[in-house]
Structure formats: C-alpha cells, structure tokens
Specification:
The complex is a heterodimer of chains A (about 120) and B (about 110). Chain A has strands spanning about 5, 10-15, 20-25, 30-40, 40-50, 55, 65-70, 75-80, 85-95, 105, 110-115. Chain A is mainly β. The radius of gyration of chain A is 13 Å and the shape is globular. Helices cover about 0% and strands about 55% of the residues of chain B. In chain B, the strands form two sheets. In chain B, strands 2, 4, 5, 9, 10 and 11 form a six-stranded mixed beta sheet that branches. In chain B, strands 1-3-8-7-6 form a five-stranded antiparallel beta sheet, with no helix packed on it. Classes of the chains: A mainly beta (about 120), B mainly beta (about 110).
Chain lengths: ~120, ~110
C-alpha cells in the first residue's frame, strides 16, 4: 500500500503571496490532518478533515485554511504569507471511521520557505 | 499552552544501553498516546502507541509505560542501536486532534 504523498516537496515563496499544498492519504483512509513543524514551536496541529468536513482545528490564524475532496485528497492554503510561515508542513492520514483517535501516518512533508 | 511536556531534550546512550524518554500530559480527555520517530528530512513515523486502559505495551525493543493517575507515559528503548539515533516525539490525541511534545534528540554511540 502506498504511503501518504505530499506535493510539492519544496517550495519558495515571497512574503504576501499565497500557497497551496496537496496531500494524498493512504488508500482507504478518510481522515487527513495537517501539522506545521518548526525548530522553535515544534509540531503543531493545524486542522483535521474527515469526509470533506473540518472536524478539528488548532490555534492558527484564518490565513491557514484547508479542504478535502470526495476522494479524501486534501489541500491546505496559506494566504498573505509571512516570514514566520517558513516551516515543514506535514500531512497525516488515518482510517478513523468516527470521532475516536486512530493511528496517524505521516507523509514526507512540504518544506516551505518564505523570503 | 503546552499540553504535552517531554524530557529530556537530548539524550546520549551507549550501544546496548536503555534509552528512556518521559512525557506528561494535562488534558484527561486524551485517549490515545503514540510515539513517533523522525529522521532528518523525513516525516514522523509511528513507532508504538497505547490507550489509557493499558499500563504497558511492548513491541520488540520498544516499550511504553503508562501511568494514568500521574498523567505520565514513557518510552523505553532496550538494547539501543546506532540506527535508533533520531528525534522522538510523544503525543496525546483526542479524536485525531494530536498534540506533540517538543521532541527528544537521541544519539546512540557505537
């Protein structure tokens, strides 16, 4: 079974621009979660989507948004990029059929650099 | 607010020794406690996980000990190997809202 895939793997953007990152979950997984990883703040939960609906949300500003498609693929968007948005963005998928916690499997991440 | 506190920040162990990493959580609603291993340039990989109705879980050289009353859990790596050198994260989750510890950088010296 193929793992979680994320595209692109690397991205360089300028302050003020917007960016869209993509995540394809493991086949059969319906839950997709997004995380931001930085040296200073560590791994922080952004949001989780299940069956095309945002089910959980972390403490990030509204510039960070996401969506999930009917095939469970997910995208996250960051608008009006700031230098502090430079990070590794990780996507994780889970087979969670409901609201219980299940194993989450991470993709390799997208390294975003904002200049 | 840091919901999961992890220690130590870094750990150096000799080959064959035992590596121990500790975590404490605050929210009693958490119902799932995984440990992840991350190598440079890679995403975190699920290592082992436990639910609060169990006090210990062992998989190969990796063991989680869980103390529900103290709201603490720990990872023990037996017979540590140089290939175990990585950053380890504990986490606590409720309905896939997962909160991570700050990470422990483990170095196993040959």
């Amino acid at each position: 079974k193929a793992g979680v895939t994320q595209t692109p793997r690397y991205l360089i953007k300028t302050r003020g621009q917007q960016v869209t990152l993509s995540c394809s979950p493991i086949s059969g997984h319906r839950s997709v979660s997004w995380y931001q990883q930085t040296p200073g703040q560590g791994l922080q939960f952004l949001f989780e989507y299940f069956s095309e609906t945002q089910r959980n949300k972390g403490n990030f500003p509204g510039r960070f948004s996401g969506r999930q498609f009917s095939n469970s693929r997910s995208e996250m968007n960051v608008s009006t990029l700031e230098l502090g948005d430079s990070a590794l963005y990780l996507c994780a998928s889970s087979s969670s059929p409901g609201r219980d916690s299940y194993e989450q499997y991470f993709g390799p991440g997208t390294r975003l650099t904002v200049t | 607010q840091q919901q999961v506190k992890q220690s130590p920040q870094s750990l150096i162990v000799q080959k064959g020794g035992i590596s121990i990493i500790n975590c404490a959580y605050e929210n009693t609603a958490f119902d799932y406690f995984p440990w992840y291993q991350q190598f440079p340039g890679k995403g975190p990989a699920l290592l082992i996980a436990i639910r609060p109705d169990v006090s210990e879980k062992k998989e190969g050289r990796f063991t989680i000990s869980f103390n529900k009353s103290a709201k603490q859990f720990s990872l023990h790596i037996m017979d540590s190997q140089p290939g175990d050198s990585a950053t380890y994260f504990c986490a606590a989750s409720r309905a896939n809202d997962m909160r991570f510890g700050a990470g422990t950088r483990l170095t196993v010296k040959p």
